[in-house]
Every structure is written in structure tokens, then in C-alpha cells.
Design a protein that fits this description.
- This protein is mainly alpha-helical and about 300 residues long.
- Helix content is about 70%, strand content about 10%.
- It has two domains: about 190 residues, Up-down Bundle (Alpha-lytic protease prodomain-like); about 100 residues, Alpha-Beta Plaits (2-Layer Sandwich).
- It is built from ten helices and three strands; from the N terminus they run H-H-H-H-H-H-H-E-E-H-E-H-H.
- A hairpin with a 2-residue loop joins strand 1 and strand 2.
């Protein structure tokens, strides 16, 4: 994140210099996106630090949820940048603009594109390795900045070659629409995390482990499977049904086998399991009229 912040500031200074030298709306769109990126990166750096704080009395599940706030904030910033770029581009398209020193602008922007490509790929790779939505979202923002710069290079070069200055504003509009697409993707990802939408791949893995435990006779059955993921943490809850005549020690040993199998299936994550143990004759263990809460996740996946 330190590297990302330093590069973002350098990109901002360089791109606004290129805009002042050329007067290009396309280059201005690139510089505006970089300004938003600097602001977002500061918030992202804070979010990454906060997410790594250990659980405490007020936050027993840790602080990882801030990653989704961070992704949402970054998406909102990108959205604002796209709106500003569209406004400037439409103004230039309607009233025209004066362009100058386009060759120098193309050269500077091409250099910034290469730097952002390397940084963005690095951030995404590290983010995926550590299951950090904060880093991955920031890496995607950097790559958005890179593609913006690539579009600017192509557009400004085309203007310099053809002399059709209106193409500069048109390129800026196309860039803004591409930025909007990235913003929507980040916002959807943030909303899904805050609403604790289940990861289908995680569900399949958990159901596979539990079904295998049933086949091996470790447990009689299971239900009430629930799980949620925050960064590299996976929180799992379920009810295990076991032979009623077993001692508490024997039942605990079986439950521990299942927990170890789940942890082995997700070696790259920190897995926290909460198991509720019940006798296999479930209806006899509860008073008449007792009803379990709805369990749509397990029922749907087992079908």
C-alpha cells in the first residue's frame, strides 16, 4: 500500500503536468481518475491496517468487514471521476478546445501506463494470495487507471495524426464509460460482502466435506449449515447429528474430525467452526412443537 500510494501521487503530478502542457480533455480525464485514485488509496491504506487488527470485545469477529466499505468507497470515487470526465468531455465536444504538444503528452502518458500496469498486477496478485479484498480492489483501480491511460495514448495519437480535435473529447467519453463499468463492479462486490452473500464455491466445498463425513459414518447427518467469509477468514456453523448413546468425549472426537477435514479443505484460510451436536433421532431430542429455523442453504445444495 505504501508503494501504491507513492506511485499514485507521482502519477497524479505527472498526468496533470501532461494536461497543462497539452490541454487535452482525454489527458485531463486520465489525470482526474488519478486524483480520485490518490484519495481512495489513502482510505484503502487505513482500511488494510484496520482490517488486520485482532478481534476485541466490541468486534469478536474481527475488523475485516471494513474491506467492503473500502471497496464501496473506491467504487463511489471512481463513479464521481467518471461523472467529472463526462462533463468535461461533453463541454469540449460542444465548444471545442485548443490542443498543443500532443507528442510529449502521448510519451508521458504511455510511460505512466506501463508503471500502472506493473503496479496493478502486483497488487491483485498479492491481494488474491492473502484473500485481501482491499488490496485486490485497489489493484483493479490501478488497472482501470492504466486502461484509461492506454485509451488516452491511442486517442491523442489519433488526434495528432488526423488533426480531428473532436476525437479527443470522444476518447474521453469512452474512457469515462469504461471507468463507470469498473465502479459498478466494485460497488456490487461491496454490497454483496456487506449483505453477507454466500460464496457458492465455499458452499460446495463445505457440503462435500460434510457429505463425505456422513458416508464414512463419522456423523449420521447434518443440517443448519451457514457460513460467511471476510478476507482470509471463513466462519462456519452447522448442526451435526450423532449416535445418541455415545459419550460426550466420543461425540466431540467425531465433531473434531469433521472440523479438521474442513480446515484441510481450506488451507489458505483461517477457519472458525461452531458445531451444535444433536442425537441422530432428532425428533426425540426436542419437546413437542419445537421447530428449527429455516435452513435453505443446506437443503438447496444437498438437492
Amino acid at each position: 500500500m505504501v508503494a501504491s500510494l507513492v506511485v499514485s501521487v507521482l502519477m497524479l503530478v505527472g498526468k496533470f503536468t501532461a494536461y497543462l502542457l497539452t490541454g487535452s480533455a482525454a489527458i485531463f480525464s486520465d489525470a482526474a481518475e488519478s486524483l480520485v485514485h490518490v484519495l481512495a488509496t489513502v482510505f484503502v491504506a487505513f482500511s488494510l491496517w484496520y482490517a488486520l487488527q485482532p478481534p476485541d470485545l466490541n468486534h469478536p469477529y474481527g475488523h475485516g468487514k471494513i474491506a467492503y466499505f473500502s471497496a464501496g468507497f473506491e467504487g463511489a470515487m471512481i463513479l464521481l471521476a467518471a461523472a467529472g470526465i463526462l462533463y468535461t468531455a461533453v463541454q469540449d465536444l460542444l465548444y471545442g478546445t485548443t490542443l498543443r504538444r500532443l507528442g510529449l503528452g502521448v510519451l508521458l502518458t504511455a510511460l505512466f501506463s506501463l508503471i500502472n500496469l506493473l503496479l496493478g498486477l502486483y497488487l491483485i496478485r498479492v491481494g488474491r494470495r492473502h484473500h485481501s479484498l482491499v488490496l485486490e480492489a485497489n489493484g483493479r483501480h490501478v488497472l482501470t487507471d492504466m486502461w484509461t491511460s492506454v485509451g488516452v495514448v491511442a486517442g491523442v495519437a489519433l488526434v495528432a495524426w488526423t488533426g480531428m480535435r473532436w476525437l479527443d473529447a470522444l476518447v474521453a467519453i469512452v474512457i469515462a464509460l469504461n471507468i463507470l463499468r469498473t465502479a459498478v463492479k466494485l460497488l456490487r462486490q461491496a454490497v454483496a460482502g456487506l449483505m453477507e452473500r454466500v460464496d457458492e464455491a465455499d458452499t460446495r466445498q463445505l457440503v462435500d466435506v460434510l457429505d463425505e463425513a456422513v458416508r464414512q459414518g463419522i456423523i449420521s447427518d447434518y443440517h443448519q449449515l451457514r457460513h460467511r467469509r471476510t478476507g482470509d477468514q471463513l466462519w462456519v456453523e452447522y448442526h451435526l447429528m450423532l449416535p445418541g448413546e455415545e459419550t460426550l468425549d466420543e461425540a466431540h472426537a467425531r465433531a473434531h474430525q469433521v472440523e479438521e477435514a474442513i480446515q484441510a479443505r481450506f488451507p489458505e484460510r483461517r477457519v472458525y467452526v461452531t458445531a451444535h451436536l444433536e442425537p441422530e433421532h432428532h425428533e426425540q431430542a426436542h419437546p413437542a412443537g419445537h421447530q428449527e429455523p429455516a435452513d435453505p442453504l443446506t437443503a438447496r445444495m444437498k438437492r
